[in-house]
């Protein structure tokens, strides 16, 4: 933590800041430049609410020099992490494809989709049973019944499964039925839910909040890991910007940025970010090319009649075509497309 | 709902869209322009996931013509609503000031602040007992103990009280101790929590999400009201933009926009939006001038030692000076500054 | 300028950074913390492209500690500046109202508007003769003829005049006819135009770019002042955000922020920012309440037939009502509403 | 153009809107829904400033149904365009790589870079001679001398050349020395410059403005083409968002979106968008994978001593490594990497 003083700051003002720091059991390092004085804090910064120092007279600003997240920080955990999910995994050398409907609608629908996405190379079945919807009048999901359908689809196809959770009750149910839980974008800073997800012990897919910074996203991961659950995968799913030609703006640069800042795997959701099936293939390929560890793609048997997010869902044909096109990209980038293929 | 077809759309494509709509029991109205055909849907739109129509060939885009929120919509409830909170209220003709510390720290601190903010004209005491913090290593609040301190401060001063809630447990506790609950920005689309807040029956202050649109914000209010709780007050607290000179960008235009779109009261939080005590007075005055129904302002006995958000907290002196300066603005705008004064 | 090294940075890496700095004739100040080493640069930073240091191994990031703008910086010019425009002025103690049509359409129209806005308290007539329009097929302005109409309106009414310029030719023409030139939002970083505006010697109204930071805006002002023209007034006119309920998001907090960072006057344009006449009065009042030095408001004799920006233009009646309502706010804030009134 | 009336709109209000439209020589098509009336305009919309209709009583909003750009619109020009630049070209089937320094510094430097980037597969040499810089105190470029160095580098290496222009003078000079001119992000809505670029007849690389929408970007292209110059290439270079981990947010989805909306080629600049050499390779690969027609990459002989944008420049080694890695992606996507290679 560095405190930058104003050019006009007088000796007494500098002294007051130094005293505040020393009163908290820390020591300081003064650097007297030609224009301004800079005060470095030495010691355990967790003892001090350094942001408060901005209220001291003569202080220009406070510059943090270390990140607040530790367990998810690559500086302290240089090796990339592989997260196991059911009988598959997410991490270096693999391209994991999660696919399925936005919302689980019926058991037959889910089973049909499961069989088809497996055939095209997906190893994890996604399907929403608890749907956070903007309007209270939209379809909110089948809840525990939807989870049971997911379990049945797993038994039938051997696919691993993931489901979004929105409450402690949903987590308690999910633990019984699926292999991985998802924290959605709207709940990325629902810290109560993050702690519950941490305590569940299940692998967690943590979607980026709609306007979350990289730093806030890693701090959200930190909430989960701090509860003793290190099985966290990050999912870039588009951020909110002024541009409306796509539903959100897919921030693909977040993939290499995250690779530098964290050891956790990072996957990309081209469906929610673009909001249109037309743009999903191009963005899926781009995600693979910039070295994402996986993809989450919405696939529906009949997008025109989907109960949620029809416009961005791929048909079986479009999904099969896409995964076929992704394979050579995987070869180039050095990822095995589908470890289940080897059987 | 209007479907705009592409210029090249052929008769069969238009026919397929019409069939889809009629199959759902609705009727259509075709408008053949020189460049494009437009299809209007007539009937109860809730029967149809109209967004799905974008997957039909020849469809250019879907244009909604009615809002999804009804109960909070001024079109259907033209008279402005007044919300009662303890022994005070929020609505037309009144400027309600909520003030207090970001976080409740000790009983003595809270009592001292309560006495001082009351003296300066606040009628509602704010104080966080459950703190959603970006980092898991930051102070997270005193929880139920903090609520008890709030209750004691109310007994002592007669101020009404408000406290943020972050979970069902927090709501269950809050109901016992405080007059109004707050849904914070990070939980604005935590739909489970919104429903719980609706069921609590307590008046709810609904803060705008960090990147929530006006439309999403009103839909969040709709979640609460749809549970049978119409006592909702909206709070503009800054949105996330590219500008970093302030913590967030206070979107004051949201006040007149909301006045047009909803009958619910709207207040403004100049503390969290600007992130600096230096900018709070100017923005508080601006909020009053554009006809906000109230203000939520952070006040602390010793900002330099606050456990949360010290930089944006006003001292007692600064708060007293500000409320003094606000009074003539209230006179101009035609709001009674502090109805409690009349006693 | 401070260089923050990575925790793992080794002695050789620190040495290479120090050598780079010293090779440029500057000296360093090392601060060895528990986690990281920080290197302060002492001396004339203009000798060094310090951002380049991020390419050195072991460097985490570069933190600037001083602003790049000097002439517009309040740190070095603590007294607020008053800018004279024709027979009026903009600065402390005055609320200057600029009003008029978005685009000059005919001489009769401009004259009628000039007479009316003067009657309601405006002291500067605005009117666009060179219109930067998104589409090449929209009305682009009357150019020099429009400037002549402005000059005639000035002769007739005594109002001072302002006109946007978009090229050197426009500046050369404007110098002959109007009292102040305006650099529009789209040209805020058209550095060639800024320099020409600086050389013109005329007072310049510098609108904030649609996504300009406070820092970039002040650097744009610096371009003008560095050419020897200190007569610069800043105009906040809304920034681009994700919110579409208003055309742009009026960043009123920029007023107190600018008050702190610069000695230049700051005015507010509630017309372009909101894009709707319905929201102009509320935002105009808010701007006055947070101590803006003036307002720029679009007024039109017949908004429904305006050639540009009709939806945000006030009618004469609405403008007269608004200025009447602004007067008591001026009294409260301590600004003389219209010095011309005193005649 | 569709006018959506408010639910409460009465017959007289609807009649007034209809009269306005018919008075302009257009006809209307009324659609009476259960909740609202919708009025479609039939005829040549350029006769009417339809936005003005929002000032009519009873009007809820105006919905445009056709784009304002025509010449750049794929709806009317379905075949993709190939743009010739010197002895190379940009368009389907080719991946064109533009590389070189941010700013031309010396003739020797430029020549060395030209030889190296050619060796690694670039076919167009970039180099800034007119630099638009945020601060007036930063290096502003060698101007015409820099252009002469570009011409010499072309003679020596056979590379085609591109240079940014910032004024009519710069365009007049550029025409004499280089093969393609660039309109930078800050000038994307400098309409005077766009028209001059159109009149120059040279191929134009049009960078996306920092906060330009897709629609505004295509309208800017329209300005150039409307002057009779159809040789326009679009360049996505990152947009401004709240995220600061990268300098801007590369909006790669703009590539497939533009592919749908326009016939013009689209290239990507991973250097300016990310602002860091570390992220350039990943984003360059992603751009190729999502079918961009080319890349613009900054390469410098000594990034630590670059006069502009050192942190984002690749060294020769890094650039050679990257182009080697790009080749297999070109094979997969079906683009010839470097047509000059065939000689």
Overview in brief:
With 343 residues, the first copy, chain A, is α/β, with parallel strands linked by helices.
What's the layout of helices and strands?
The structure is a homotetramer of 343-residue chains.
Chain A lengths: L1 E4 L5 H13 L3 E6 L4 E6 L16 E5 L19 E3 L2 E3 L5 E5 L6 H13 L4 E3 L17 H14 L2 E6 L2 H10 L2 E4 L7 H10 L3 E4 L6 H12 L6 E5 L17 H8 L4 E3 L1 H5 L5 H10 L4 E5 L17 H18 L10
Parallel strand pairs in A: 7-8, 7-14, 8-9, 9-10, 10-11, 11-12, 12-13, 13-14
Antiparallel strand pairs in A: 1-3, 1-4, 2-3, 5-6
Helix pairs in contact in A: 2-3, 3-4, 4-5, 5-6, 9-10
Indicate the radius of gyration of chain A in whole angstroms: 23 Å
Quaternary = homotetramer
User: Could you estimate the helical fraction of the residues of chain A in percent?
Assistant: 25-40%
Report the strand count of chain A.
Answer: 14
Percentage of residues in strands of chain A: 15-25%
Shape of chain A: elongated
Spatially, the strands of the biggest sheet of chain A line up as 7-8-9-10-11-12-13-14
DSSP summary: helix tally of chain A: 10
Largest interface: A-B, 48 and 48 residues
Q: What is the N-to-C succession of helices and strands of chain A?
A: EHEEEEEEHEHEHEHEHEHEHHEH
Would you tell me the structural class of the helices and strands of chain A? alpha/beta
Which stretches of chain A are low in confidence, meaning pLDDT under 50 for 5 or more residues running?
339-343
Tell me the span between the first and last alpha carbons of chain A.
Answer: 53 Å
Largest sheet of chain A: 8 strands, parallel, barrel
pLDDT averaged residue by residue of chain A? 92
